[in-house]
């Protein structure tokens, strides 16, 4: 992620997070820009990223942008990926989270798309479900605690990412990404060059991608009690 430019007329790939193989949960990609369209180089970057994920045994790619541009263009993205000669099939996106599967020659990659509304709206939906369960007698108010909320928030959205690669800016920004999904996430930041900050989008290179995975594989996951 990087400083989000509200006046931008197109979407840049800004960050990316990981699932399976060298990582156990999704790779997340976070762009910025407005919901008015996709840059051609964004589609190219996505095609490259899918190939990199396949070669690194990543099975789930999570895409996030604050305004939902990627989510609104999920069908176009799926169509663009399907034109790639190395992609055997691309399923139609599901409506709720715009999730679809990309079948490559030897591996299937699941792609999910979220936006900022999946944070606030998701909390509201979970609250409504719990309130309904209490009213119907399926759940006692005293049974509602932090552990239960954590389970409902995480299990009913998408798997939490193990690794997030943040592109651009002088420091990391989440831009409304659901924070409860990032408690055990490792971050790798690729800052913008000083001369191009907030003007030219920072691109994710294969070298950055591999270095982020290497650094993640060296991390020891410690879950405190």
From TrEMBL:
- Please report the name of this protein according to its UniProt entry: ditrans,polycis-polyprenyl diphosphate synthase [(2E,6E)-farnesyldiphosphate specific]
Q: Which reaction does it catalyse?
A: n isopentenyl diphosphate + (2E,6E)-farnesyl diphosphate = a di-trans,poly-cis-polyprenyl diphosphate + n diphosphate
Chain's gene name: Mo02629
Q: Does the keyword Transferase apply?
A: yes
Pathway the protein acts in: Protein modification; protein glycosylation
Alphabetized GO MF terms: ditrans,polycis-polyprenyl diphosphate synthase [(2E,6E)-farnesyl diphosphate specific] activity
Top-rank taxon: Eukaryota
What is the annotated localization of this protein?
Endoplasmic reticulum membrane
Tell me the organism.
Mixia osmundae (strain CBS 9802 / IAM 14324 / JCM 22182 / KY 12970)
Q: What is its EC number?
A: 2.5.1.87
Per its UniProt record, the required cofactor names are: Mg(2+)
- PANTHER family linked to this entry: DEHYDRODOLICHYL DIPHOSPHATE SYNTHASE COMPLEX SUBUNIT NUS1
